[in-house]
Amino acid sequence: MPEMPKTLSVSQLNQRAKQTLERDVGEVWVEGELSNVSRPASGHVYFTLKDDRAQIRCALFRQRARFVSAPMRDGDQVKLRGRVSLFEPRGDYQLIAEAVQAAGLGELLAAFERLKAQLEGEGVFANARPLPFPPRKILILSSATGAAIRDVLAVLETRWPLADVTLIPVPVQGVEAAPAMISALALLNRQARLDPEQDVILVTRGGGSLEDLWAFNNEHLARAIFHSRLPVMSAVGHEVDVTLADFAADVRAPTPSAAAEHLVPDQHTLTRQLEQLENRLHRAMQARLERDSQRLDTLRARLRHPGEQLEHQRQHLTTLTQRLQRAMQQTLTRQKAQVVQLERRLSSQDMARLHRAEQEYVDQLQRRLGKAMQRALEVRRVRLNSAARELNAISPLAVLGRGYAIAQDEKGQVIRRADDTQPGQKIKLKLAEGRLSVEVKRRLKS
Questions:
Q1: Antiparallel, parallel or unpaired: β 406-408 and 426-430
Q2: Rounded to an integer, what distance in angstroms lies between the CA atom of residue 237 and that of residue 217?
Q3: Region of 75 on the Ramachandran plot (φ > 0 left; ψ -120 to 50 alpha; else beta)
Q4: 3-state secondary structure at position 291
Q5: How many angstroms separate the CA atoms of 396 and 384, rounded?
Q6: Which pLDDT belongs to residue 245?
Q7: Signal peptide position in this chain (predicted)?
Q8: Sequence-separated (6 or more) residues with CB below 8 Å from residue 83
Q9: Is 363 left (phi over 0), alpha (psi -120 to 50) or beta?
Q10: pLDDT bucket at 106, cuts 50 / 70 / 90
Q11: How far apart are alpha carbons 186 and 276 in whole angstroms?
């Protein structure tokens, strides 16, 4: 009988299939549409990647999911890098994702964000020069046949017919657009050195898809706008459209029409403002004339003829002269009377009597001084005797006078106890009168 082939278990079969897939297919890039996106509490992302004819289960584990910048939503078109594998417990063929990025439009947006971050880091978006208002000459980079230039010219004509506008026709879409605009910017900046009347450059086009506007996301165009000597305004697409040219420009307008409105004033508004200013000036002039007329009338009423004014001053001077003469005469008469009175008082005084009175007063003061000094000396003598008695009462010498003595050792230290001496030691005794040098024979206890 023929030998039976080796039988495999289900787990062995799935294990072989997994090894074969991972070895023979390995890591691949796959593009498709996201479906059934699930995010359990574990942090992993499970989803299905499909196209119009097939689908495959996918898993994006938590360690890799945190590197995906854009949110993953059903219907998104993505490119996925992963390893083909098989989930053995269920026998599910699956793709283990390592990286996920947007495809199609998503790639453009990702490229836009990368360029934006790079140019912003280089300072290309730091322009913010003020635009002249109103400008003397406006240079427009745009398509000659697009709706944008028609809108801009219509607004400029309505608001400010005095605007000097020069159109530099350039392609605004496709691969030729960015190089053409860069060349035009270089040419205009060279001409600006020769023609100082040129004030501002407007780069504009109408709306469109991201692909249509992609020329305005060219990094070389953004750098050319940044380095432009002339200030640049950008107005690309609709209000929601934003390009790198908008960031690099000095001023960005949401639409071409809004750009034209920003560049020039409204003649009708200015006319109304001028009329208002004219009316205010007329009223101010009328009020000023009326006020000055009243002031002139007041001054005229106060004004006097020069001859009359001189006569008035002459009379006033005469009056002052007379008052001065009278005052001087009165002062002289009063001082003469005082001198006469003082002379009479001086002649009536007896100088000898005054001298005797003054001498008696001096003698009296000397007697009082002698008595006061005697009393002060007596008081101080009494106080000195009292202090001497008190001092003598507490003086050691007074104690010695009553028969006591003070014993001192060789160093002059006072000996208070017998134990502080030794037999044969020389000590000194201080008496009330004189001193003794003695030798200790023996010590006695009290």
A1: antiparallel
A2: 12
A3: left
A4: helix
A5: 20
A6: 94
A7: none
A8: 22, 26, 27, 28, 95, 96, 98
A9: alpha
A10: low
A11: 44
Q: How far apart are CA 399 and CA 392, in angstroms?
A: 9
Question: Could you tell me what percent of the chain has a pLDDT over 70?
Answer: 94
Number of C-beta neighbours around residue 107 at 10 A: 14
DSSP conformation class of 434: S
Phi, psi at 40, each rounded to 5°:
-70, 175
Using the structure block, give the residue that is written with the tokens 């009377």: 337
Tell me how far apart the alpha carbons of residues 221 and 179 are, in angstroms, rounded to a whole number: 8
C-alpha to C-alpha distance for 18 and 90, rounded to whole angstroms: 12
- The SS3 assignment for 104 reads coil
Other residues' Cβ atoms within 10 Å of the Cβ of residue 72: 17
* CA neighbor of 94 nearest in space, from 43, 42, 41, 36: 36
How long is the chain? Answer: 446
Residue 48 belongs to what H/E stretch? strand 45-50
Ordered alpha helix ranges (H), 303-350? 306-348
Let me know: does 80 contact 28? Beta carbons within 8 Å.
no
Q: Are 57 and 8 in contact (CB under 8 A)?
A: no
| Alpha carbons 59 and 166: distance in angstroms, whole number | 58
**Spatial contact of 244 and 221, defined as CB atoms under 8 Å apart:** yes
Structure confidence at residue 141 (pLDDT):
96
Half-sphere exposure of 19 (CA within 13 A, CB side): 6
Q: How far does Cα 183 stand from its chain's mean position?
A: 43
Based on the number of CB atoms within 10 Å of its own CB, is 249 exposed (0-12), middle (13-18) or buried (19 or more)?
buried
Q: What is the chain's percent helix, strand, coil content, to nearest 5?
A: 50, 20, 30
Contact 46, 31 (CB under 8 A): no
What DSSP letter does each residue of 343-412 carry, written as one string? HHHHHHS-HHHHHHHHHHHHHHHHHHHHHHHHHHHHHHHHHHHHHHHHHHHH-HHHHHHTT--EEE-TTS
Contact 223, 248 (CB under 8 A): yes
Read off the tokens for 383. Answer: 């106080």
